[in-house]
Design goal:
This protein is mainly α and 316 residues long. The chain contains 11 helices and no strands. The protein has one domain. Helix 1 crosses helix 10, helix 2 packs across helix 9 and helix 5 packs across helix 7. The longest helix is centred in the C-terminal third of the chain and has 28 residues. It is found in: Membrane.
Length: 316
């Protein structure tokens, strides 16, 4: 579930149109809707996977399926995997957001709901903003951005149930997901810092390969958890969905969107995804809904909107 790199991280000349036979505007709208839907179902796919398969093996299978699909995309876009030292460093930086982030995400998926995973991942732009302001000192927040940040943090605390009388929250699972988000954000900044300026499909393929080797080295520690029988149809579909749609197709669409739309519009993906993900978890996985979760999610979305709205003038 990768989400919001800065718009200037990738040169616009790198992206080839994903759709050539329909109206460009209609294609962009379709891609936007597709990314929201794909990423809103992704946490549910992760939770369904770890219900039956150990998280390490689930990720290994997911990336094993994603690699040939990524190679197909390379062939379709007429790109080649670059093996220069700078490119290898860039792939490794991207793997922090795949191998590292996905490891903690799937570990957390054994403890928290799919809706909670999406909500925590939805705070990625806030974390990246805080890093840019306090650590990199590259930006300064305007007043409305601070209001949005405060409102989003307050909303997040409500969704976690902090301050309620009957809090039933796995803090270890939440901690895993927060670490996953921080690793994702760190990966985003690292790839930008390397500045390899390679095609996003090449970057995705290279980082996927590095991550796959990482999981391959991790498996000897979990040999006792190796699946002994074929997974159920539900788990198999969840794995295929994660590999095909979440790891490959959504990334193609997303990298195209950040070249066609302004950052405020792209930020709507982050706002809409947790809402839909919470609904899918309730409908398809019987995950509980509570008043403080709904109110907190609304406040989080409002805070993200204020934060994104004030970012728009900075991108022009």
């Amino acid at each position: 579930m990768s989400q919001l790199p800065e718009k200037n991280f990738i040169s616009s000349t790198q992206i080839q149109p994903a759709v050539a036979f329909v109206s460009p505007r209609l294609a962009t709208v379709g891609q936007f809707i597709a990314v929201v839907l794909i990423w809103s179902f992704t946490p549910l796919a992760a939770v369904l996977t770890v219900h039956e398969i150990h998280w390490a093996w689930g990720l290994f299978f997911r990336f094993s399926i994603a690699i040939p699909l990524a190679w197909i995309c390379l062939f379709y876009f007429r790109q080649k995997l670059i093996l220069t030292p700078q490119a290898l460093i860039s792939y490794s930086a991207g793997a922090v957001g795949l191998f590292g982030s996905m490891t903690f995400c799937y570990m957390g998926a054994t403890r928290v709901s799919s809706g909670m995973i999406s909500i925590i991942y939805g705070t990625a732009p806030l974390w990246s903003g805080l890093i840019a302001v306090f650590i990199l000192k590259r930006e300064r927040f305007l007043k409305r951005q601070w209001y949005g940040l405060s409102l989003a943090i307050f909303g997040l605390s409500l969704t976690l149930g902090i301050g309620t009388d009957h809090i039933q929250l796995d803090f270890v699972g939440v901690l895993y997901e927060i670490i996953a988000v921080l690793l994702y954000v760190l990966s985003m900044f690292s790839v930008a810092k390397v500045g390899a300026e390679i095609h996003p499909i090449v970057q995705t393929t290279g980082s996927t390969l590095v991550s796959w080797f990482g999981y391959l080295c991790l498996l000897p520690f979990f040999l006792s958890d190796m699946p002994t029988q074929l997974p159920s149809l539900q788990t198999s579909l969840a794995l295929l969905y994660s590999a095909l749609f979440s790891s490959v197709l959504a990334m193609i669409f997303y990298f195209h969107l950040i070249q066609k739309l302004n950052p405020t519009t792209v930020m709507l993906i982050t706002i809409l995804t947790p809402v839909f993900a919470t609904c899918w978890g309730f409908l398809f996985n019987h995950e509980p809904l509570s008043s403080h979760l709904i109110i907190g999610l609304m406040l989080l979305c409002c805070g993200l909107f204020l934060y994104a709205y004030r970012n728009r003038p900075r991108s022009q």
